Amino acid sequence: MLAVKDVAVRAHCAACHVVRSRSRSNMPASREDEIARALRDAIEALEPITRGQKVAFERRLRGGIAQCASYEDEMAIASAMSVIPIERLKLEGHTASMTIAGDEGADVESVESAESRMERLSARDAELLALLRWFKEEFFSWVDKPPCEHCGGSEMTSIGVEVNALTAEEREGEAGRVELYRCGACVKTTRFPRYNSAIKLLETRRGRCGEWANAFTLCARAMGFRARWCLDWTDHVWTEVYSESQRRWLHCDPCENVCDKPLLYECGWGKKLSYVIAFSIEGVFDVTRRYTQNMRERYRLRGEVYEPWLRKRLAELTSELRSAMLPSEIKELEVQDVVERAELGRPAVDVGESLPGRQTGSLAWRRARGELGPSS
């Protein structure tokens, strides 16, 4: 894909060529007018390229909006509530928030510290941590290569991807593609559909980061949390959940059972992020700044669309999503938007602890993706 910055370079080169040509022909226009006109002509000539990139970017934005709309489906919510041990997780959350207060014999200083922590970790926030733990440890499973569906063998070799000849079940589960594997023991083929239906994922309970974030975001919504589905353009997906007690959005990665460690990917995994876009029924937001300590470097890797166009388009989509809300609801969200913009305007803060490389997936798979961390 041609980056916008490459388009700008081409436009500049084309403009210089036009100016040189006009100079040789002794045209009377001033040099400033010539340059301005040449740049305009060059950019217009390249408009079909940038228009195509906007269309592709818009398609991804619309896909994210549709993804989040699916979490509001009554059947999806009911399906999630039927598999989540809601009362148990609420009890775990309540117990966890209470134990932060420490032992009865603690001195004044430690009690004050505990009270401060209590303000940060409400029972509701503790429920979120319990949901993350349950999802990771008890509910969902990671898949590098699926076991053989015929003999249960584990020596599987990838033999291709199917995108057209899908079964009825795969189409119903909204599989975007089906990975094909051959068993080394029985030599039969196993199909691994990459389902996009969160309801179907509650049934299969397995996948990679896309499936994990998809199913977890639905579970968070079923638990009554305000949740965002976050898409990282460098191939990862996670969730953000709004903490009413802290009045801010918390990064949640169900694959890693991690909460509120947004620098995990840049500082821990060693990822070179570009775009991180958060989607919910309340709006679409560029939250890249939350996940990086060097936004200037991130801008160098962002070249699919013009930044002013992106800001304008996200604002338009957010207004579109909020159009059916009550004025009082919109006003409250706009106040929260201001707070979040202020937060994103400040440098991302290191959590003060070691952030590991990626933990999920085989060592070979993580190494191939370059996500073992800077020290690997």
From TrEMBL:
Coiled coil: none annotated. Residues 201-256 form the Transglutaminase-like domain. Keywords: Metal-binding, Zinc. Residues 350-376 are annotated as: Disordered. One of its GO terms (biological process) is glycoprotein catabolic process. GO terms for cellular component: cytosol; nucleus. This is Rad4/PNGase transglutaminase-like fold. GO terms for molecular function: metal ion binding; peptide-N4-(N-acetyl-beta-glucosaminyl)asparagine amidase activity. InterPro entries: Papain-like_cys_pep_sf (IPR038765), PNGase (IPR050883), Transglutaminase-like (IPR002931). The keyword Nuclease does not apply. It comes from Ostreococcus tauri (Marine green alga). The lineage of its organism: Eukaryota, Viridiplantae, Chlorophyta, Mamiellophyceae, Mamiellales. Transmembrane segments: none annotated. It comes from the Eukaryota. Belongs to the transglutaminase-like superfamily. PNGase family.
